[in-house]
Amino acid sequence: MVQPTIQTTPGARGKRARQLHVPLTALPALSGAQQAVLLKWLKSEAQERKWQSLLQVAGSSHLEVADTLVQALLLCGAVALKEEFRHGQWWPWRVVWTDLESLQSLAGLPTRTQRDAEKKNLGIQLQSLAQAHPWLSAAVHSVLNDALPSSSKAARAELLQALALWQQAQRQGMRQDFALAARGHTKAITSTEWDWLESTTPLETLGVGRFEPLIWLAGSIALCSSTSVQGVLLPLGQFGFVGLPCRNFGAFMQVALAPKVYWLIENRASFERQATQLPEGQCLVWLPGRPSNAWLQAMRWLLTAAPAPAVISCDPDPAGIQIALTAGAVWDGAGMPWQTRHMDPDTWRSGITLPLNDYDRRVLVELQVTTGLPADLATLRDYLLSSGTKAEQEGWL
After folding, report:
1. Could you tell me if 233 and 335 lie in one domain?
2. 185 Cβ contact list (under 8 Å, min separation 6)
3. Is the pTM of this model over 0.85?
């Protein structure tokens, strides 16, 4: 077999470069140890490496493997060697990849060009997802801007795609059900991913429950079972506040004592605080940040069984406006009046405020074209835009 001719180029005194000028079309036959060392070398994107650094990457037990590997790479045109003359011999000094991306592809590794293209495609997919499903905007924003490995970003994008399909199919279930649908196993979504989903998406609203969905009530309302012979009452005012399964609000329950008004509070701490000091005739309801379909259905039944107007208190921020509108739609559907309470700027602007973020501003843009926005919420929207601030109701309610 004729050995290929390796061209030698003289350099500075005591230095030279050696290279085989042929296109890199295939890798030589490599042993398992040589393949393992090559994969370690190719993880770096540097076009030129010190030979000593490559030996360190290979490890002290693979020095001979590294030497035979670099000679094989030289013979197939994958590298050029910069050598120096020491102790009567020519020794590798620096190694130059002649076509790094081609070599990475031949070794089965992703290239920078491929990763950049995948990153760009992922961004396009996520932006399209956010446009089609605005409720995913916060989650998409976090995927695009958080410092995460590309594999983690791709995995989170897949979860958002699965969540969009879940919502489009109007599915309902527990977290295990969604994990099974998204990844084929009930425990396939990590706790870190669940924390991220919970912080960026309205899981409960989308029908992905962590526990049995409850509706929390307090004050002037008493319930009883329609199937109970004794007609046992559950006067909620005597218990502080009570959480009842949403599925119980239906044919087998009756309202024995109806309120004169419902007061819905978004912040849980504020709900519990107000439950201890309610005036007579008010039924206090905890309004989850993004009420689920089960919660809305239970609230519709309760309003049908015991109709009364409502006052709604949410955080004075863009999401709070959306949440108030969602809850208020239940009263609109029942032909009953509702209004907001403790959300006007005069209540909170002199206290602790927070700056609006990009997601807040996108929501405000959507609210500017929302038809039928009540006057008090339109005033709040305009103030949020002009001041660039928002607040949390726990500070005063």
Report:
1. yes
2. 179
3. no
